[in-house]
Fold these 3 entries.
Entry 1:
Amino acid sequence: MSTAASAKNGTWRNWGGNVSARPAREVTPASVDELAAAVRKAAEDGLKVKAVGTGHSFTSIAATDGVLIRPQLLTGIRDIDRDAMTVTVEAGTPLKRLNMALAREGLSLTNMGDIMEQTVSGATSTGTHGTGRDSASIAAQIKGLELVTADGSVLSCSEKENPEVFAAARIGLGALGIVTAITFAVEPIFLLTAREEPMSFDKVTSAFDELWAENEHFEFYWFPHTGSTNTKRNNRSAGPEKPVPQLQGWFEDEFLSNGVFQVAQWVGRAAPGTIPSIARISSKALSARTYTDIPYKVFTSPRRVRFVEMEYAVPREAVVETLRELRTALERSGLRVSFPVEVRTAPADDITLSTASGRDSAYIAVHMVKGTPYQAYFTAAERIFTAHEGRPHWGKVHTRDAEYFDGVYPRFGEFTALRDRLDPDRRFQNDYLRRVLGA
């Protein structure tokens, strides 16, 4: 089964299966000129325009009843500049292909998220991130952007060229134009040593500040209904390279983390009463391990169990209190949650609508397996996250609107004013943007 979104009988569906749309037409441009022409033609026909990558967003951010732009022919590396240490890549390139191509060139991104199926433009436009003490989201590594704006013109932006557009368009939500190419900062490829080990919930929360401070990349997964977490520390290493042995890797990453996990989800769906017992077994199944490899092989892992997700960024100093409140709410609710809660961090950045804009942040992500009712759990979690001025991931389930965002993003008005200038007729509008940015 493809990891991408699917389109059957003219209906587009996202990866999580919780969003669908019926566009009037689909266009797969083979060049920037063709894409610009498609935008102009949509304007003539009075149609809205949205670009969609692999559909990994759980919100309807890419849904449209107008023209759906598929960027899969706009792929590959345009340019590698070893003096500036940048790489310029076409917008439809999957992160996986970018990572592999960079590795062949002896280069790497500094940080990345934990899956790499998405396109570079889809991942950055929604604010996709990994975890890092000093290094931030994928979008924060952008040095330049090219986008087709509402009138069909091609606009380039960077810190020097159209800097006010650059400040916003790195995480542009598809509201400012259609990204056609991205220039990323890269560095010579390096090694990371990953140390994964179980740790109790109480220990990881009480020692969180030290664990964060001592590691370049720290994250953990908490298994609801248990006092157990699995922690992961990634730090740069002088080597030698010591990857996970192939058979062990298959057993832990495919058989346990995907195969057995999938079966556990099926059992949990059929008999919710078994979930706490399954969670206790799951939390003990993965043992401690240490390995050293190139970045994308350490940062990313296969995710074959389909799910729906909500994730909020809270101020980093509020993360432990927020998590403890979530645990208490779950204990009192009688809800049965079979998916681990993921906790990561990012330093403050200067992108207008980045979830880490202007503040050091921690991310708490809650998941439910595809097809199970998630509303009660997500509503309870969201109530806790918003009490801490949480900012939801733009591509993950949330119920917030423009009024809320105006309160939690100091530069929200700066973004909407730029949108008024670049897209006065709302060519790139859809229901989601109407809700989160205002009409």
Entry 2:
Amino acid sequence: MSSLHRRHLAVSPDWLALYYKNPLEITHGEGRHVWDADGRRYLDFFGGILTTMTAHALPEVTKAVSEQAGRIIHSSTLYLNRPMVELAERIATLSGIPDARVFFTTSGTEANDTALLLATTYRRSNQILAMRNSYHGRSFSAVSITGNSAWSPTNLSPLQTLYVHGGVRTRGPYAHLGDAEFIAACVADLEDLLGHTREPAALIAEPIQGVGGFTSPPDGLYAAFRRVLDRHGILWISDEVQTGWGRSGEHFWGWQAHGENGPPDILTFAKGIGNGMSIGGVVARADVMNCLDANSISTFGGSPVTMAAGLANLSYLLEHDLQGNARRVGGLLIERLRAIGAASECVREVRGRGLMIGIELVKPGTDEANPEAAAAVLEAAREGGLLIGKGGGHNTSVLRIAPPLSLTIPEAEEGAEILAEALRSVA
């Protein structure tokens, strides 16, 4: 055990998770690589939990942060803030939400917490619909709508949460159905649920479930839900903390795979927009955003430094078509991983879109989750020089692959080969 690990254990809560038997201290990064305290280089396929979205030490972002810090670091939302207004303008336009208003926070948890405050106030209801296997953050309200017991430590809540089918395509009572039948069954379940309860405030859903193991429904499920929700006046909150900014390759926002009946009423974002800086936020149409009848501010949300980083990062992302790169390189990577998975008895499914890929592991010859194998592959991949994540609603048995969106084809091939060897080592 390293001295830093001992010091960490002495001052940190027991529930603060660390990866690896011998936890890693990352000291610096560049591009798609990071280095540890011993000077070893790793190819980073997890990006600080999908946060270093563009690249480590991206010159455009570090320059913007340095220049803004040299002018002023903090002022709060009590004062006009040019970088905040400029970033809000760009995000409002990109969101697809008409007459959009933007509120900045410091994290995805806080963004979802704000969205819940808006929805419950607007609708005068404390009832929320959420998806099974979901994750929405670690605040008191966010854990109460999280449909994944591994990340929800209490059932105490200011909200009443009802869980809906549909977030996981290949498990559960409807897994055997075709896509159209799957959607119809989930809609029927939602209709039935609404027949037994008071009117909810909103449905909150991740278009692709992140912590849940990069699971997703067939395209169009939330559009079909939207028809039902609209009849009841129920709002739709799209949690884009992990899916936003083009990571899926096919769409800029995850909701666009379900956009037949229009954009969500509320959209939350965080993680990748700051490329490592602490930015979260909420976009909502004006009547929803303006429904609060009390004063509110954000002391650190919209910080001039983080807003400068967000502006520089968003400009780089759009100018270099990183969504297109995620589609092209991610498509090659997922096909390579599917070929590798087909040769392993431990791999149940390789799924995902763009540079958001999950590899679900099971015990050979069964459909039973295999968290031990997932932990072992995580360790073996590190030994091979690759950092990945893990998650999943079935005992944390999914490997999570989410490199920076600037990943190159040679780097994708290198990472796939390391993963192939790691899977062979635990088969």
Entry 3:
Amino acid sequence: MFARPLRERVRAGEITSSVRIWLTPRVKVGGRYRLLDGHVEVTRLQEIDLSDVDDAMARAGGFDSLDALMDTARHGRGERVFLVDFVFVPD
């Protein structure tokens, strides 16, 4: 799921990656997940170190800064960091 302000940008193809912090992966490569009038299809799932996450990744994911990304990504008990690449596929 994407924060409401990011959804249209994902749909438009402006955002094609996301950093997620989970206990375990919540998506799989090739998986299709409902978003607006289509689906997000995961093209790559890579576990990375938290220290690998930088401002460029935050901006690519639609955030203004690394701090803004972390405020959103750190919302649960997760400790594992994943970089998820995807494409939006309209219905």
